[in-house]
Amino acid sequence: MIAALFVLGLLIGSFLNVVIHRTPIILDRQWRRQCDELAGRETPAAPRFNLLVPRSACPACKAPIRAVHNVPVLSWLVLRGKCAGCAAPISARYPFVELLTAILSATVAWKFGYTAQMGAALVLTWFLVALTFIDFDTQLLPDALTLPLLWLGLAASVLGYTAVEPRAAIIGALAGYLSLWSVYHLFRLATGKEGMGYGDFKLLAALGAWLGWQMLLPIILLSAMVGAVTGIALIVLRGRDRNIPIPFGPFLAAAGWIALVWGGDIVTGYLGMFAS
């Protein structure tokens, strides 16, 4: 089963690459169309563009990618990271996302076994992978992903597909949103700057719905710690301007996934340090 989930993860990772690349483009086109409507301008006709249409193509020569050249990870290795038609380089991030999704999916299968909870955990994992790389690329956490993830978490709790009781899931969603919302407004009042985006509030609310309010503090502490270390390292080692924002969503997503798989062990170990 773990091997099967690894292979399935490769296939899902290939689809997530499409989601990561196309979702911001779809949103941009929607926003431009809405702006045209508000301004009373006629929106020019555009070719159909969604997660399924058109077929994936080489960014350089625009040639459609054949099925034989679209096998996760393997095709990239065989083609040595180049387009089969024009030999333009293809980013290594495509096989990285596929391999990462496969490893995370296999880990979920190993942790939860053949249960409904495993299926729910896989859905959460795949959403988090997509949100991580979209936020990393664009500093956006689209409502089209965060809000369905929130409602799916509440539904999974009600249906018994997670170990979280519905009451804890509802409180987790409320507390997750309001905690970062409060930090955002306090920071804005103190500095006059916006420290994070509303997508971060919604992502933490979704994690609260999936994992319960008890996991919110470990998630916030872990994500803040890793984010602070990463930010300091970028400033010190790479000379990054400290005024350039760093997306917080990837750290929230990583901390949420760790809490999904090992959260109970982490909390138990932490409390055990203070046990008499």
Separation, N- and C-terminal Cα atoms: 41 Å
Note poorly predicted spans: none
- Broad structural category: mainly alpha
Q: State which percent range the strand residues make up.
A: under 5%
SS elements, strand count: 0
Mean pLDDT: 90
In N-to-C order, the SSE pattern is HHHHHHHHH
Helix content: 55-70%
**Largest beta-sheet characterization:** none
Tell me, what's the shape?
A: globular
The radius of gyration is: 21 Å
Q: What's the number of helices? A: 9
Please give a structural write-up.
The protein has 276 residues and is mainly alpha-helical. It has 9 helices and no strands. Helix 5 packs antiparallel against helix 6.
Question: How does the SSE layout of this entry go?
Answer:
Layout: H1 2-38, H2 74-78, H3 93-112, H4 116-138, H5 143-158, H6 166-191, H7 198-211, H8 216-238, H9 249-272
Structure, briefly:
This protein is mainly α and 276 residues long. 68% of the residues lie in helices and 0% in strands.
Tags for this model:
single chain, 276 residues, mainly alpha, 9 helices
